[in-house]
Amino acid sequence: MTQPPHSPSPDSxxxxxxxxxxxxxxxxxxIAALLRDDSVLVPARIVMPMAGDASLFAMPACDARVAxxxxxxxxxxxxGTGRASIQGDVVVxxxxxxxxxxxxxxxxxxxxxxxxxxxxxxxxxxxxxxGPLLVIGAGTQxxxxxxxxxxxLDVTEVFVASRSQASAEALAQAARDLGVPAxxxxxxxxxxxxxxxxxxxxxANAVVLRAAPRADAFIAAVGAFTPRMxxxxxxxxxxxxxxxxxxxxxxxxxxxxxxxxxxxxxxxALPTLADLERGRxxxxxxxxxxxxxxxxxxxxxxxxxxxxxxxxQSR
Length: 315
Fold this sequence. Notes:
Layout: E1 11-12, H1 15-20, H2 24-35, E2 46-49, E3 55-62, E4 66-74, E5 86-94, E6 100-105, H3 106-125, E7 130-136, H4 140-152, E8 154-161, H5 165-177, E9 182-184, H6 188-192, E10 197-200, E11 218-221, H7 234-243, E12 245-248, H8 253-256, H9 258-262, H10 273-277, E13 288-291, H11 296-309
Parallel strand pairs: 1-6, 7-8, 7-10, 8-9, 10-11, 11-13, 12-13
Antiparallel strand pairs: 2-3, 3-4, 4-5, 5-6
């Protein structure tokens, strides 16, 4: 019996090589293009609980040409151990042939696509795109959002708030390394009064922002992604809905946006990023809260961009 020819092994890229294929502005543009693509299919992600509050995530998605699955673990107990809290891979396939094309670093994809979604939302929705940025949470997502916002917006100064002074100082130094003045702050609510751009990206086990922001503020809240999690005070969420607008990344937020759910808001009635990109909704005046819970489509956008730029694809 004749065996089919063996397909070549796909390129397996480490974190650095994966990041190099996903420049911030290009990734935000790819996410916008994906939202306009009618061929995109994204089933509900599978989140399987494991021992020790850990979870296994399986997130497939495809369009007419590219398919991918992200398979990652989230292990909160790894914090402070030297082991990453998020581990795993994104496997990219060619739809026409079924061949594997790339294996990308899962944590890098997660960090960069999440920050790029926030960047796209800020590019489209922020009343003021220039000025100080407040980053609340100095972990992986804090660094990714810092890099994305500095690359894609007119950030003039950075304030960093974190439970760990050492982590806050390290992220402030990362901002200075990018050429932006930065300092660690002890009180996020006080710093918010100076910042038209705010990102909350904490483990979401406690409220980290309560004060009413500036009238021209844009807040990206990305740390909470289950109904039980919240970074933002419930009253703050309701005030933002009353004085400005609240936008969610996808309709999945109905079941996952803990900040909004705990505030008693009708999440199903809120506009999504796709509504904005497809012209079904336009923002009005006032501050903006963008609530992001995550979606396999964001990973597909990253896979599409990475596949076009991978060296093996040009040979």
